[in-house]
Every structure is written in C-alpha cells, then in structure tokens.
Design brief:
Low-confidence stretches: 246-251
Shape: globular
Radius of gyration: 18 Å
Number of strands: 15
Mean pLDDT: 94
Oligomer: single chain
Number of helices: 6
CATH superfamily of the largest domain: D-amino Acid Aminotransferase, subunit A, domain 2
Helix content: 25-40%
CATH class of the largest domain: Alpha Beta
C-alpha cells in the first residue's frame, strides 16, 4: 500500500517492553470507527488485531499505528519507534476555529492536525488548542483536554464533536471510581486562567499545561498532576493477543 494512501481510520498506542495501557479502549475505538464505514467485517478486524498484537515487540519503546487506508481500503500496521515523552506542555491558541471534517474519528484529519501542530511549534508551543466557532474549548491537535475547577475534574461538553480520547476516558473513569466529582462544562480559554489544565493522549499520558501562547490565559498550579500521572503510568498490562477478541465492543 502506498504511503500516501487515503487514511480512513487510525489509532496509535504506546508499547513499553511489551506492556500497554488501555488496549481495550484502543481496540474498541478503532473497531467501531472501521465498522461504521462498512468496508471491513468484524471477523476481519478480530483477525487483524490478533495478528497485530502478536507482531508487536516485547522489548523497547514503540508507538505503533493501526490504519484502515487505501482504495480499496485495507488494514495495516505501522511499527514506529516511540518519540520522546514529556510531562509538561506549552499550548498555542490559534485564532481560527476547529475545521476538522470528522472530529469523532481519528484518521481523516490527521494530516491537517499534524500541520497544525507543526505551526504550533513555530510559535514555541508543542500543541495547538482546538475551539468551536464561538470559542468553546474542544481538545488539542493530538490530545484531549481536562481541567480542575476546585476539586471537580472537568471536560468539554459531550455534545461538541470530539475524538473519544482513550486516556481521558480512563482518567474520568478512575476519578468516578475514587469518588471524585466529574463534570462536562463549556469553557473558553479565558475561563481556564489560574486552572490546572491537562493534555492527555496515549503517548504522553497526562501532561500539565505550563504556558498558553497566543492569549492572555495564565496556567494554574499542578497540585493534582504528579499523583495522577503516576497513577496512570502504573496502569500498563502485558500484551495479550486474546484480549483483542473481547475488546471490540468495549469503550
């Protein structure tokens, strides 16, 4: 398959010495997006995931990407070394709103988001914030956004189209299990002044926003950050090909 084949669905996961976090969430998200397109069967996806998980290395740091791509579409695995990981992040706030074509599916907008993050780097940032036309925070180019309002862990409203982040979903579930209140709230970037804000994805886990670029918002302290990052980093389990069988229907 050509490197520039049309990308319909994609998903990446971090593999460290044969262990992975939230494999069921990655399998479920990718599988649902593929099935919604109706071009591959559940049986084909099950076989693909079994073969993929068996092919992943059990030593070293890797950031493989699974894809449904091409015309006609087919499933493939890209085995890639893991990039450097970080705990802190500077976020650029563009003037333009989110213009993704398929915000709830990872893949079709990946090239545009990669270009947007490259533009963020030209402003001295590592990520770019995505907002609605009226300025409501949605997520970042390659990360979900969570923030704290007092002791409430907040995320953008469910009605705003966004990628269902695997790490953000995991953290929200962990918070609920620990009796921590969570809420969906519509906030503009100015509303985040003085707040502890996190960006979350499969590669970095949780990162603390330490600077906003392109606006007057100032970051808050990170009093929740260290224990939560450590908690999430511990949630790795060994790769198991059989786990793909039951994960397709799970979140």
């Amino acid at each position: 398959m050509a490197e520039d084949a049309p990308l319909l669905v994609a998903d990446s996961l971090l593999v460290l010495d044969g262990s992975v976090r939230s494999l069921d969430r990655h399998v479920g998200r990718f599988t649902r997006s593929c099935l919604e397109l109706g071009v591959v069967t559940a049986e084909e996806l099950d076989r693909f995931w079994r073969e993929t998980i068996s092919a992943l290395p059990h030593t070293g740091a890797w950031f493989p990407r699974v894809e449904l791509a091409g015309d006609p579409p087919s499933l493939r695995l890209r085995l890639r070394p893991a990039p450097a990981r970080g705990e802190h992040v500077r976020v650029w706030v563009p003037d333009a709103p989110d213009r993704r074509r398929s915000p709830a599916c990872k893949g079709p907008d990946l090239h545009a988001l990669t270009s947007l993050r490259a533009e963020a780097e030209s402003h001295g940032a590592q990520e770019a914030l995505l907002r609605t036309a009226d300025g409501i925070v949605v997520e970042a180019a390659t990360s979900s956004v969570l923030w704290w309002e007092d002791d409430v862990l907040c995320s953008p409203p469910e009605e705003i189209p966004a990628l269902p982040g695997t790490t953000a979903g995991l953290v929200r579930d962990l918070a609920a299990a620990r009796g921590i209140r969570t809420a969906r709230r519509a906030r503009r970037v100015d509303d985040l002044t003085g707040r502890e804000v996190w960006l979350l994805n499969a590669l970095h886990g949780i990162r603390l926003v330490t600077r906003w670029i392109g606006c007057d918002t100032t970051p808050g302290s990170g009093r929740h950050f260290t224990p939560w990052r450590e908690r999430v980093e511990r949630l790795r389990t060994p790769l198991n090909p059989l786990s793909a069988t039951s994960a397709g229907g799970r979140r």
